[in-house]
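About this split. The held-out portion is used to measure sequence recovery: a designer receives only the structure tokens and must propose an amino acid at every position. Recovery is the fraction of positions where the proposal matches the reference. Here is one held-out target exactly as it appears in the evaluation file.
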């Protein structure tokens, strides 16, 4: 069994587990594009989730952008903050207004 993401305008609307033959049969709907996704990230960078975008140029699933200031790392197709998460062992949350990590107290 394999995992497949249902795409509508390159946005994942559903993820199912199915045999390749089932997908190829057209039973699941010819009007949508089904792209195989890898649960362990072996291909297409990330396991697809509802709301993810499929980028055909990168052949990758990209999660929704968490904050406007975050940037995409094309090597992983994951978003990263414009400043590194502090490595002092404390808990932080992102503050988009200041574009900085704020310690959670």
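Reference sequence for scoring:
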């Amino acid at each position: 069994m394999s995992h497949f993401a249902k795409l509508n305008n390159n946005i994942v609307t559903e993820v199912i587990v199915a045999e390749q033959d089932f997908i190829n049969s057209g039973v699941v709907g010819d009007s949508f594009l089904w792209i195989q996704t890898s649960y362990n990230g072996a291909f297409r960078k990330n396991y697809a989730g509802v709301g993810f975008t499929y980028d055909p140029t990168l052949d990758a699933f990209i999660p929704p952008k968490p904050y406007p200031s975050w940037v995409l790392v094309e090597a992983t197709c994951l978003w990263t903050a414009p400043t590194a998460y502090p490595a002092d062992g404390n808990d932080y949350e992102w503050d988009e207004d200041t574009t900085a990590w704020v310690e959670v107290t």
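Annotator remark: The radius of gyration is 17 Å.
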